[in-house]
Amino acid sequence: MIAGLGGLGSPVALYLAVAGVGKLVLVDNGKVEESNLNRQLLYDEKDVGGWKVDVAKARLSGMNSQIKIETGKEVLESQVKQVDVVADCLDNWSARKKLWKMAFKHGKTVVHGAVDGFGGQLAFLVSEEDGEKIMGKDGKKEIQVLGASVGIIGSRMAREIIEILDRGKPDTGWFMNFDGENFNRYFMKGTRFNKWNTIIVRFCELWLKSKTTKRWMTKKFVNNIKQTIPDADIKVHEGRIGVSPYSNENVEALRKVFGVKSINPAVRISLDELDSQFVEIAKQTIFPGERFRVTARRVNKGFPMSSMTLQKELGAVVLEACPGSRVNLTDYDHNLEVEIHKDFAFIFTQSLPGPGGMPYGVEGRGLALFSGGIDSPVAAWMAAKRGMALDFLFLNPLGEVLESRVHQVYERVRDWFPDSKFFVIDTDEIVKQIKTNVREGERQVVLKRFFYRLAEKIANLHNYGALVTGESIGQASSQTMKSLGLIEKSVNILAIRPLVGMDKEETIKIANRIGSFEASTDFAEFCSIESHSNASPDEKTILEEETKLDINLDELVKSIRHIKKNQRVVFEKIPLPKSLEGYVVIDVMKKKAYELRKGKKYIFVCRAANTAAEAAHKARKRGFEAHAMTYNRARKMGVDL
After folding, report:
1. Which of 18, 324, 370, 641 registers the highest number of CB atoms within 10 A of its CB?
2. Residue 62 buriedness (CB in 10 A; 0-12 / 13-18 / 19+)
3. Model confidence, pTM
4. Which residues of 292-323 are buried (b: 16+ CB within 10 A; e: fewer)?
5. For 507-561, what is each residue's pLDDT tens digit?
6. CB-based burial of residue 509 (10 Å sphere; 0-12 exposed, 13-18 middle, 19+ buried)?
7. Considering the chain, what is the average pLDDT of its residues?
């Protein structure tokens, strides 16, 4: 069902129709208006005045003659019941709330989108609780919407719906923020000149340090750049570093070096060339009618002209060389900047942000507990941003499939962590003992305490100064202040939690920035040890439960494996069958022992499909056709669980 056939509903309907979706239910009570044609791509001028649902049905049927389309001017509960996914393309929160309530009542997934100006949001909702987290309020202010932003959000909504129809819905919701004004990008107006010969790198915070510390940290910073760009010619100037040669590849590499505040593609020239080179760059940068300003800095205070005088003189030269251009110091198209040093000058026209922080490694080395979910890569990144070099430890509770998926997340972010190592310890025996012996409600805290102890032993053995985890206060029952306090009391090593005060939306924004979000959301984290954790665990009870376990951590330490890229297991995704007819369905959470019979095909199921994926992988290695599904997907395909 697509509720709302305006700016968002248009791209959603178009992409679903051409993708071959079998049936669409289109709902909208409005008519086509000329003022909305700039963003409602389903319609054109001849459609003005017609009902949107009628025009949309005719247009989509013409694009896909096999599609079945139902239309309506209001959302009917009978229609919601029969669809697989509900696309919320509405433009007001009161209508959304009614739609969501109806969808969740019948167990339907909602893919929500909303746009405001250049930005917007996208959410995958599976429960009323998910909806409450993002629910806004209707206001009287008219919102200006950019058609291109609507297209971006709408096409992404269609992509998510297609994935749900193909793979089944995940068990948890998620939210994504889209900031259309702050992409990492090059401004084309500032890059018309293409003869840059160097890169200026400015660093963060080092100016706050003592001379001795600053000298040491600068040396470490330069070494990190050299490690990232081995063939670079690096020169340290007052307050900045020059890196040559210039290339787009080198610029992008520097944007992953911690400590970099900003990056300027630049031309290094002699002082005698200042006027001629400045004019040359201006002529290739500024077009008639565009506005500019000149910003001059004298790093060499012995230069005979003041910064203000130099700005005025260079501005006058540019005005003469670029007919039709105008000076505007506040609202400009281009900022032509020059830095005067003792025997040379830098000229540049753009500034690109770096990650900021401290040089990687100046705070020693830590060990990141890495699960591959959204939080742990971001926590590692934030600790590294403050100067901590990291290695990664995955405590694997399942098997090869999960290990492969977690390692793929690590591969997405490893460029941020030079010389980092990825270690694995199989902890299925710990999990098995805890599930068998520890009572429900206390298992998650007990498991984390043993994980912390195991990580501490590794840290002490290899001289790591701290553990880094992705925990955040109140994010889960096992992450309340009381739970975190009990977990931390199990060790003596420093435990750093960079996300402790962050909202999930903030974490997701960073995960998108560093490149881990897509891989992290491609699978569910292991969570089958208990259905619900005690949010207020008692220390005496936890200690009593731990006495029931016989876990040899020293033996587990000996089993640690260093996984290199060419050593990891690669688990390929196999498309799920469209029908389960002829398959034997095995619930791996209820049936611990089973025999696979020759000639049979198997579907393994569990709540998040992690344990099921391991079982299916092992079956395929033995030559069987086997797949893994969540309970929800299996029920949708007719399995009675």
Report:
1. 370
2. exposed
3. 0.70
4. bbbebbbeeeebeeeeeebbebbbebbbeebe
5. 999 999 999 999 898 877 676 678 788 889 999 999 999 999 999 999 999 999 9
6. middle
7. 89
